[in-house]
Amino acid sequence: MSYVDDVIAKVTKENPGEPEFHQTLNEVLNSLRVVVEQNEEEYRRDALLERLANPERQIKFRVPWVDDNGQVQVNTGYRVQFNSAIGPYKGGLRFHPSVNIGIIKFLGFEQIFKNSLTGLPIGGGKGGSNFDPKGKSDREVMAFCQSFMNELYRHIGQDIDVPAGDIGVGAREVGYLYGQYKRLTGQYEGVLTGKGLSFGGSLARTEATGYGLLYFTNEMLKANGESFEGKTVTVSGAGNVAIYAIEKAYELGAKPVTASDSTGWVYDPEGIDLALLKDVKEVRRGRMSDYAAERSSAEYHEGRGVWQIEADVALPCATQNELGIEDAKQLVANNTFAVAEGANMPTTLEATKYLQDNGVLFGPAKAANAGGVAVSALEMSQNSERLSWTFDEVDTMLKRIMKDIFTKLDTTSAKYDAEKDYVLGANVAGFERVVDAMQTQGIV
Ligand code: GLU
Predict the structure, then answer these.
(1) Collapsing DSSP states into helix, strand and coil, what is residue 129?
(2) Residue 32: its H or E element
(3) Measured from the CB, is residue 379 less than 6 Å from ligand 1?
(4) Do the Cβ atoms of 412 and 430 come closer than 8 Å?
(5) What is the pTM of this model?
(6) Sign of torsion, CA 281 286 288 289?
(7) Closest ligand 1 atom to 162 CA
(8) What pLDDT, on a 0 to 100 scale, did the predictor assign at position 1?
(9) Whose alpha carbon is nearest atom 8 of ligand 1?
(10) H helix runs in 76-137, sequence order
(11) Does residue 222 carry a catalytic annotation?
């Protein structure tokens, strides 16, 4: 068996019951064959892929907190410190009932390559809890965040591990987490990113993932003789990524016509009303049905279904495995010519292959949604120099970073005779930098 096959088999066996982690492991290692085959003996001797696929450290802890009825609740907290070859561990925290160790490992593994592609000095990590912030009072969310930090604080630091937000963790949660870290350690340091602007947050961090997705996709379209001008775009999700993807899509001359949340989705043929969507989701913490009730042009549907709407470009911005093979077939039948991932791993392996085989331009998450973590790294830089940059300064850097990422994917895929295979380009380009650092630093 080849070294890649050996490692996939071994790591899968040693980590049972973690299907999402197995999925990303398969995707990444399969694309790396082209590089691994050239260095097979050396990598095997150095157990390079085993070291890459095994987190440096994984922390699991109990999070007890008291709800508004005086009942004690217990959740599980995680932090996976996956790889620190190119910088301190960096990656978000996800609070969602679906969170388990396999989900955090899939996200942490992706983060290694994503962070590498930004060109910035950040290693890969991820964390979270099966806590569900939905329907909880502010006091309950604070109680949970404080208890979560009571354990996490001993494992993190501005030069050690710098968490941020992800699904279920936004400005409110980061604020409570930061306050508790400061209380426990007495340190005022840039230990979290996505902070409020009054205490070390960066301008444009809120917009960064959505804007970055559109900057990346725009580069991908340009390189293939296309543009967003006058195009119809379908978007899934209605969180931070989706909202700012919709905002930037309008700025680039496109018409975004859908949005969704965990209970339903909206088709708005006149284009999503961005101000209303922001009010419903960011201010009222409401549902897509609230949006539809206030917008006469919108159709509301229960469940999932945005990919059946005809569009030129599809941007999955909700969650993992939300775009499966049937959706991919529908997109191809509708002549959608580009798909770019705003969420982490929203497309299944089978669907990705089908889209690529049918000539759909495919921008993988670890490149397309790297704008969020890139601006997090810029927030770390601003905290280190005790300065704040303007919105335009950060946005200009974000644009340049996303353009550079696309160029890396394009040149890397061409170098390995896999032109326009941006999945291979992202995995190989991300890997090359991390491996160079790992090999140079010895067996650690
Ligand atoms: N959760 C985001 C991601 O998936 C951002 C992480 C960060 O800013 O550290 O990349």
Answers:
(1) strand
(2) helix 19-36
(3) no
(4) no
(5) 0.98
(6) negative
(7) 9
(8) 86
(9) 373
(10) 101-117
(11) no
Q: What is the pLDDT of residues 100-118, one digit of tens each?
A: 999 999 999 999 999 999 9
186-231: pLDDT as tens digits: 999 999 999 999 999 999 999 999 999 999 999 999 999 999 999 9
Backbone angles phi and psi of 266, in degrees to 5:
-125, 135
Among 298, 310, 230, 223, which Cα is nearest to 264's?
Answer: 298
Q: Which one of the listed residues 114, 126, 136, 231 is annotated catalytic?
A: 126
Is the minimum distance from the CB of 261 to ligand 1 under 6 angstroms? no
Atom of ligand 1 nearest to the CA of 369: 10
Tokens representing 211 are 């804007």
Tell me, in angstroms, the distance from the centre of ligand 1 to residue 399's CA.
17
Is the pLDDT assigned to residue 92 strictly greater than 90?
A: yes
Q: Is the CB of 372 under 6 A from ligand 1?
A: yes
Q: Is 94 in the pocket of ligand 1 (CB under 6 A)?
A: no
Both tokens assigned to 273: 């009303």
Q: Is 92 in the pocket of ligand 1 (CB under 6 A)?
A: yes
Mean pLDDT over the full length of the chain: 98
A 10 A CB-CB count for 102 gives: 17
